[in-house]
Design the sequence.
């Protein structure tokens, strides 16, 4: 009976270890399924709703594989996003950027570390400068020695800045970047200033699109419409009407 009991205990333990091993495998697989080349954009845009810091490393890997960490088109939005993520998780920054040390053209990571401007992010940026390819090292050291602008003070001189601000919102859910974008919409009416009109039009289109997709943005638009200047209010009311009409159809 004693031998039988020991044998039963051994079998039970092996079963338990097997179940635990399967759980680890499925947990790893589940993480890869949640962050993939197909859904990485939706993962980023909904991050503020339920931040998942444990999936940031996988997300960076997916973006790197797609070539987006060095893409001019994606740099602003992704930099804005990861600047907030790095700032909110200072203790994890070094591990997240370690795989990209010494690799060229990690522009999204460089800018995000600089804009995060924490002790940990600046240390990581310094390490990246030390091991960067020769043509990038000096520029990174200059970047590290300069003071980045804040979300509240950064000049909005191109549509790319709007993308940066949206990236910041997607990571933080803060109303500050959205309000700054809303305040640019009336520039669309500044005749004779092509760049201002470009920024204003891009601001209006992006606020309209995100108000339809994000309840938080819609709420910010509604509140801002109560106190906005007449030109901005007219544009916000138009956005709200379109959003409500779309909801009615659904």
Sequence:
């Amino acid at each position: 009976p004693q031998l039988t009991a020991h044998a039963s205990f051994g079998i039970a333990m092996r079963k338990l270890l097997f179940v635990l091993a399967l759980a680890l495998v499925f947990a790893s697989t589940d993480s890869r399924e949640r962050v993939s080349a197909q859904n990485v954009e939706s993962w980023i845009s909904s991050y503020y709703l339920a931040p998942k810091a444990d999936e940031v490393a996988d997300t960076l890997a997916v973006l790197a594989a797609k070539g987006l960490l060095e893409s001019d088109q994606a740099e602003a939005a992704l930099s804005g996003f990861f600047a907030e993520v790095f700032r909110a998780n200072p203790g994890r920054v070094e591990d997240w950027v370690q795989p990209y040390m010494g690799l060229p053209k990690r522009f999204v990571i460089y800018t995000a570390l600089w804009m995060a401007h924490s002790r940990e992010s600046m240390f990581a940026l310094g390490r990246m400068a030390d091991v960067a390819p020769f043509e990038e090292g000096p520029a990174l050291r200059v970047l590290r020695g300069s003071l980045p602008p804040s979300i509240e003070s950064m000049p909005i001189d191109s549509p790319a800045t709007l993308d940066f601000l949206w990236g910041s919102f997607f990571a933080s859910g803060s109303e500050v970047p959205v309000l700054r974008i809303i305040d640019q919409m009336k520039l669309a009416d500044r005749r004779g200033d092509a760049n201002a009109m470009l920024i204003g039009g891009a601001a209006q289109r992006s606020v309209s699109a995100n108000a339809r997709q994000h309840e938080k943005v819609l709420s910010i638009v509604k509140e801002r419409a109560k106190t906005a200047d007449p030109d901005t209010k007219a544009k916000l009311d138009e956005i709200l009407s379109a959003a409500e009409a779309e909801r009615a159809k659904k």
Notes: DSSP finds 13 helices and no strands in the chain. The radius of gyration is 23 Å. The chain has a mean pLDDT of 89. The CA atoms of residues 188 and 201 lie 5 Å apart.
